[in-house]
Protein 1
Amino acid sequence: MAVLATSLTLAACSRPNEPPGAANDGSSRAPSADQPPGEGAEAAAEAAQEAAEEDPTAAPAASGAPAGSSETADGSEGDNAEGSADAGAPAPPAPPYVDRLINYDDARRALTVEYRRLHEGGDPQDVLIEPRLVVLHHTGGSSVDAAWRYFNRPKIESGRKTLAKAGDVNVGAQFLVDRDGTIFRLMPENWHARHCVGFNHLAIGVENVGDGKEHPLTDAQVEANATLVRYLAATYPITHVIGHNEANSMREHPYFHEEVAGYRTRKGDPGPAFMTAVRARIQDLELAGPPETAGKRP
């Protein structure tokens, strides 16, 4: 695909709040209004003593532990069991990009929905996708700013006759990677971008500034693409990573869906060497590719 544009903010998902007044198991509760201060603690101590007498094997309560807290085997404290579990879970990866949003106004949304109805069928009402696939590209040029300006246009240029016949919305991608490895997000990952025939309904597009000839893609871009794929695979149920040059070999895969008969393009970007270098750095993720490079995941 040619020239890429830049980034876009994606709303981060936050954990739902607990209903007001709801108490987690193991959390402390304030004494009732008619209970004198300290009386609840004395009653709890008496109850614990009685329980210990009935069951000599019961562990004694840890002295000095604040009410409502739990003490772990290593002496650390957690507010409740849920908090302890969260503390042990791996932290989500930090987004490796900066936002540089392209124009995705109401007009572009309308053009995108129109494109989806033509190429995906049905009656889609929005621009949301369910990412399963990452497609790597190069822009065909040497300037990140020129790529961004190109993608920022809402409508496809008339000179690209094959693409223009297939819809008015401009091409684009969710990400643009500069030659120094800087990653720009052009739109939220789960917004539709027109970048790969037959896969746009579930594909995240990554454009790399370069053309593979006069401006070959760089080692920094290889590393950046691998880092971005790791982030996306940890954030979405990604199963495949392919190059734009490999898309046609995926036509028999269930992911491929194109309603317009005969609408196909043949692309050479970003090329076998770049895809081999990126795959070597994400091999442990076991993400599949096209049939000849498929990994363990379906």
Protein 2
Amino acid sequence: MIRIILAFILVACSLLLGIFTAVGGVAPVDETAAIKPTEPSAVSPAADDVLEEDQRDNLAIRWFNSQKPAALRGVALVIHGLNLHPDRMGPIINHLNGSGIDVLSLSLRGHGANYEHRDDMDAAAARLETFKTVSYTLWLNEAYLAYLQVQKRARQRQVPVFLAAFSIGGLIGLDLLISNPDVYFDRIVLLAPAISLRPAIYLERILSPFPRLVIPSMADDAYLANKSGTPVAAYNALFDAFDHFEEKAGAKLNLPTLLFIDERDEFIPLRGLKDLVAEYNLDQWQFYIVQKEEEMTDGTFHHHILDASSTGERVWRDMMAATVRHLLGDKAK
């Protein structure tokens, strides 16, 4: 029996390698298209005025202000994927800012600067140690606090509220929507959201009793928040979020939503997404099938549709044009 359990654990470990991260085969990062982690915060005095008193030192959030502040067109909450460095959402943030949209980027606990800083550990070790303690409820609460700030600024400026999220970020954002009666998004953009999972992924639950176990990643280090890997605690949070989403999903999800997905996504099945849309009659949802440029298809990670480096320059440009049209409609210029 022990040998059988160990065999299952080994299988689960192999499946967990790099799941919901930018794994092997990813093209080199286009550093000019992404916000560098060493950049200072883009919070302006006006943005600081929006922060709740007890949120001024919150390492989970970071404001990126529109390049057209006199003609603000919306405020967006942006949420990254699992063990993805929050700054890897830089390309979409840049496009939103350039289109007149303020962005609040949320770093989930265990990512970016959102970790318990310790004198006895360097930043990488302290971040990973924090990552081993995360939970679904913690991440959902962080998302809710971030949303309140987005909502407050949008009301002050009388502009729409948007959500733009990748992978588990999409799951957390949508779960936030259906879990709280006061949460509402005027329009949503999802990139490979983890709201439907391929059956093989469920094998990973066998590791749930070992939350501190860290699963190595074969990822390009430039994309990772934690280069050592992802702890099982984070995967437990993913599954708890998914279970709650499945339980609460309903008509409130039927908001204008643009969903980007590669048909060959290793973890998110297009069929499952379409079934969900059909089940809840989400007639305001639109699918955008991402077909990566030919030179990007061999050995690439199809779940990863985050930037020009992973999709190709032309495909990424078209994706961002579709994003802006979806969010702003006739105001998109």
